[in-house]
Design brief:
Mean pLDDT of chain A: 95
Shape of chain A: elongated
Oligomer: homotetramer
Order of helices and strands of chain A: HHHHHHHEEHHHEEEHHEHHHHHHH
Distance between the termini of chain A: 45 Å
Largest interface: C-D, 102 and 103 residues
Structural class of chain A: mainly alpha
Strand content of chain A: 5-15%
Radius of gyration of chain A: 30 Å
Largest sheet of chain A: 2 strands, antiparallel
Low-confidence stretches of chain A: none
Number of strands of chain A: 6
Chain lengths: ~450, ~450, ~450, ~450
Amino acid sequence: MSDGGRLYSELFGDAAVSAQLSDSATIQAMLDVEVALAAVQADRGIIPARSADAIAAAARAQDVDRPTVARQAASAGNVAIPLIADLRKRVALIDRSAATWVHFGATSQDIIDTALVLQLRAAVPRVRARLDAAATTARTLASAHVHTVMVGRTWLRHATPITFGLTAAGWADALRRVFVRLGSALDDVSVLQLGGATGSLAGLGDQAIAIGDAVAARLGLANPTMPWHTHRDRVASLACALGVVCGVLGKIARDVALLSQTEIGELGLAGGGGSSAMPHKRNPVECALAIAAAIRAPGLVATVLSAMAQEHERGLGGWPAEWQTLTELVSITAGSARAVETMLATIEVHPERMRTNLQMSQGVIMSEAVTLALATIIGREQAHEHVARAAAEVDNTGKSFLDALSADPAIVEALDRATLERLLDPAQYLGAAPELIARVQRAAETAGD
Amino acid sequence: MSDGGRLYSELFGDAAVSAQLSDSATIQAMLDVEVALAAVQADRGIIPARSADAIAAAARAQDVDRPTVARQAASAGNVAIPLIADLRKRVALIDRSAATWVHFGATSQDIIDTALVLQLRAAVPRVRARLDAAATTARTLASAHVHTVMVGRTWLRHATPITFGLTAAGWADALRRVFVRLGSALDDVSVLQLGGATGSLAGLGDQAIAIGDAVAARLGLANPTMPWHTHRDRVASLACALGVVCGVLGKIARDVALLSQTEIGELGLAGGGGSSAMPHKRNPVECALAIAAAIRAPGLVATVLSAMAQEHERGLGGWPAEWQTLTELVSITAGSARAVETMLATIEVHPERMRTNLQMSQGVIMSEAVTLALATIIGREQAHEHVARAAAEVDNTGKSFLDALSADPAIVEALDRATLERLLDPAQYLGAAPELIARVQRAAETAGD
Amino acid sequence: MSDGGRLYSELFGDAAVSAQLSDSATIQAMLDVEVALAAVQADRGIIPARSADAIAAAARAQDVDRPTVARQAASAGNVAIPLIADLRKRVALIDRSAATWVHFGATSQDIIDTALVLQLRAAVPRVRARLDAAATTARTLASAHVHTVMVGRTWLRHATPITFGLTAAGWADALRRVFVRLGSALDDVSVLQLGGATGSLAGLGDQAIAIGDAVAARLGLANPTMPWHTHRDRVASLACALGVVCGVLGKIARDVALLSQTEIGELGLAGGGGSSAMPHKRNPVECALAIAAAIRAPGLVATVLSAMAQEHERGLGGWPAEWQTLTELVSITAGSARAVETMLATIEVHPERMRTNLQMSQGVIMSEAVTLALATIIGREQAHEHVARAAAEVDNTGKSFLDALSADPAIVEALDRATLERLLDPAQYLGAAPELIARVQRAAETAGD
Amino acid sequence: MSDGGRLYSELFGDAAVSAQLSDSATIQAMLDVEVALAAVQADRGIIPARSADAIAAAARAQDVDRPTVARQAASAGNVAIPLIADLRKRVALIDRSAATWVHFGATSQDIIDTALVLQLRAAVPRVRARLDAAATTARTLASAHVHTVMVGRTWLRHATPITFGLTAAGWADALRRVFVRLGSALDDVSVLQLGGATGSLAGLGDQAIAIGDAVAARLGLANPTMPWHTHRDRVASLACALGVVCGVLGKIARDVALLSQTEIGELGLAGGGGSSAMPHKRNPVECALAIAAAIRAPGLVATVLSAMAQEHERGLGGWPAEWQTLTELVSITAGSARAVETMLATIEVHPERMRTNLQMSQGVIMSEAVTLALATIIGREQAHEHVARAAAEVDNTGKSFLDALSADPAIVEALDRATLERLLDPAQYLGAAPELIARVQRAAETAGD
């Protein structure tokens, strides 16, 4: 049996979530489903109460002969079949006749799918808690930096001034949105799978629907309209929601990585990994992990979507394609959320570098402001041409934008020096930034998160 | 200029939706945004009313010099920049001074993103209408076939009996779910994009937020908390919802394709494409198109997710990666919905072939029923062994399962012949199928769709 | 530390390959690189010979404090940094001064990338051996069934007759092609990574290139033109080759799965997984695994491609996105190759079912043959129309195609009954099938595999 | 009929290649295949020579009733069926009896696949020419900048010095590799598709193989071992090669974009798109296009791989999923190659900014050099600690690294000031950079490209 995957689980994952996705947790979740089914069948007089007790007593993951189960899974085609055989064996040791009632009327997919849902119910809220914490930190940063002016960048170039508060508010609002959507997707998928071999529930007898209701209730799930063996839209929608989360986290990580480049230095990362050879390096490890997750998630989401067209009542290949894919997707999303939460909590903001960078262009970053003002007087085309000429002069001569603009009679005639000076002040050209930050704060309060 | 793409638009798309996604429609949507912005700015006294009128008069897609716009887009990096230049030129012919007020305070992304939203608002409801119609047809099939017994298949093998009604109900319920989710995703993305160069709205002056509210209202959109130039989660979520729709449609198409195989023949397709060489062939073209869409959608969704980590206030490459990808995704989803709607409306159900196929295994398809009954008497392990032996005998000798079972004293002792006969009747082993169908119908009624 | 992933490694993987990809093997490969580097540096008098000996003595995977390495990897950003620290600690116990010379002049990426290449060199040939064995089996099937006539199917419908030999030859030829391509891609990627921090080899001193040559030689690799820290085309090409392998295996698996459907029964699977509830079921587990791999591989390949645009001399996120993705891709390809090899070796061919199915259409499957013959006499359009009418009559009345054709005077005038009978014999309409099979055999012989 | 897609073809594509992929070119390529088949059949006496002449005369794309073909494609399931019908109609006008001999013995897939191969043969060499030109430019840059010292960056942070020549050589070598691989993949896929309905060539009569040889020769293709209707590995391998090309181009574009950031300014882009609102902006449009292609290609490649598991002799959905996907992939690869070729040809290198940036860290960028030298004297651990302390002092006090190192007695004792000064000179720590550049040049010469 391979021992792959543990070496990277702390690097790419989040310890608490990894525990919920571990082999032990997977096995225990499957056993929990068997226990719930047996308990309900006993309650309803379908199987003996002491059989249900024996099943409950035997259903402990730590007792499972895991190497055998893993080996037999290869020929059975899934883990549930050998796991149930293992459970029956151990139940029989407690109560020989009880073995008959293990998994009675169910199919292996009922157990595997419902166990998956239970694991998601355990793992995803932890991811959401990370997102919530990250959003709160981002909003705190936004409030603290309502007036911290910085360069706004488009195409990786200086464009017009903004504030760091606006940047942080953008992160916060996106985090809030994916927090909400991930919650909806989790609610949506929180349904029992119980259908028997082909979804008719025939093996469960006359009380099938009521059994479903009761098993679902025991496990804290809803009983859906129908079994969903080959209707994977809920699972796929959850995968999608996770993929979108990774995208949002990746965007934040990329921003932070770019803003903390040596030459830009507007943000600093207190932590960061060290280099084996270069003592001066503090590497943005959290950013790298979140970006790595953003690169990996789309392929995993695509796999879950590709697996959807499953045949008949239970398909061939589509369903097993989901198993490790979903687990990996939850895991890297959790790791990414952990990384971004940590990173935002330890980020250092350098307002003075932001100011310095704003001045790099000798004022040319304010060209839009000047152009718009000038356009209302001399027309847009003319304005654009004159301002572009002044900007080029700054480039060529190194003089300030104010001087270059002031040297153009057409501009001076339209805008006096005091006006030009005001137009060249980044702090006077922040538009609705403070108001937008306030809107983000209010949206978060309204949502109550 | 290439002329690619038209040859396949009717094959893979849906005519009405393709019209909404055409180059003309794209251009008109962008112009509509400019008109709305100018109108609002005129209302608020920011620009002259007659300038807004001139802009409105010039904003007709058919007047645009499209080859020039397409050519200049290559150097500008997007279509909006040359389109605005083209619009300014035509506005100036009407009112020279009005050209200054075209696109005043906005950035090209404001126009492109809002136009995209307008196109989605026009196109996606048509997709939803197809899904709704297909769901209704599927529910009608479900009602009509509550008692039409057929083979339930797992791993492409006979498993236990179900009804065709149950199969159709499964399709209907999945269609209803994606109809609802696609609606939510469309609502979610139905927001204005208006942020100016870096999202601060600085170019729009003091009334920026109010302008946003008014432009959004004019266009039938919501004004979101903040501009979302590099926060693409809403767009990505819509892409995901479309991907899940394609998966659900692909599953239905695959089921129909498999059930209409020459050897199975339980469903027939009245239409279908002809073969150029084989007069006897009626090809399941609609199934192929829906399966093709299910194969293509995951890659397109993954692209949109991969594009999410956009840099700073406006990124480099991520955003343009969305454009054709989203359009193509909407288009193939529309085509798939059209194909499945058509296919379900013209499907032929062959109950007699269903019955014939049920009998193919001489009754062995009922092995679960016999095993479960026997297990309660002689224990599960024993039951499984005896039934498996009888099934093997059927395989080897061709005798009926009833005869094989009846030849085993252990079985006969537990279950008399009448019981065995009842256990071997597929119609007696349909579990909760009718009740599940009823649940699906109720769910649809409750939803009011 | 999570324990995820072992439960599924035998199901989806191939034991021998999984061992090569295990955490132990990964660690040992990295240590092997350090040993080779130190040995070469000692040979060239750069580091003391006894330091190299101490490094070699300490470089045993089983001695590594794996939990600590895994935990520290999370803050370091990769596994090599803590692993080297662990190695230094253990080297120092043997020879305190030797610790300085561990990893001397190298960077962590040198170790991780070269170790990856070593693991690929160990694992991929095993996958290729499976492909080769499967190809050989397929060719044997092709030879044995040169004359086994069966239905050729297009769009999941009967089209024209072929032979099972032709089908198997198609599988064999595709397997041979991907066997060859995978070999080329493996050769291509079999290069040393040794560049130091930024690829200049500065840390390795004056003999850097010669050291690279010698380390490469020791490890059985080529020394490439340049280090390739952020140039991932070789790795990506290998990923692609694996993806194409999974596609070819998936196609074979899908064919087998479809041909062994209960209603078709032309192939049987001797092995196959049992069902927990239905004693009669023999599930095509191998097909499901190969199809699952074909569903998963594209997303994994896409991830490796998405990770390619890595920044500067070493990137941010792209590289770590490769690690688990590549391992998983090799693993599932190996599992799929194992499954298909096993499946082809144990497949049962049922020529009698092939014949029966050929007759299902009462001869209509021969419509192309009749049409082509008729067209040369009465023109294509006329021929198509008359044959289509006869085919429809078979459908409606159940009479044989021969009778239907014979009832049409226009046809009878053109083709006498003997001709019609010959045209309706599937064995007379196999075209170049035997010759194509021979070509496949010759291509394999020429290739010498 | 939609008119989508033209608006973006010049933005994302390359005009010459777009022309090869246009609807007209697609239709003409299909017609060319029909002409070649008829000519060969006439040569061999299978069809009348004047029929072949009539077919050749009628086979002009501009005469095709394209709207009808597009509309009928939707019900036929592919474009070839209505196109052949259209051709027959036009052939009949020339020679009524010739219509029978159009497409004689072939199937629509023969025509579509072979036409695709012809289009690839026309389009891909143009992409390769772009790659070759870009590689040549990159090598010229490498030669010109063998001694242009710049910052080497890892994790977006300063690491150790390199030269711009080394960076450019890395680009050149990767471009050369993908140029070669794309050539191999194109050769590999340059095969005829001719198999008839189910790949047996039955419709082509006794001379089928010889017809294939002759048709292939006429079209400049190889005749493969077997028809490959559902064996898509060659097509998939080409798609993969294109995907890897996009990855390599995306890496170059990302490097250039990052190096030309306002704050870094080591590269400049002479061209670049203008902004509608900000006169000072020169946007790196070419970089954006290449990055956009690198984001889109993986999803398109994944789609082609996902489509591989096609059923039986001709599948259901997999094949049509390839059509637009492949075309789009070729198109964006061409556009990306055009953008990068243009960008490299017009790039401005700013050695003085490279020097300035090197000095940003007061010499700390040389910490690896100092550490390695120091380690050989006082041991690695000690060396790392002392150097890290000096680096931290630079950070805190702003003094130079030389001063900070010189203030540490342990360091001074080991390394005298002259040695320290030498160790702190970036030009002395470039390792094998010039030799690596020379290797890249030699590799290109050897390859003869």
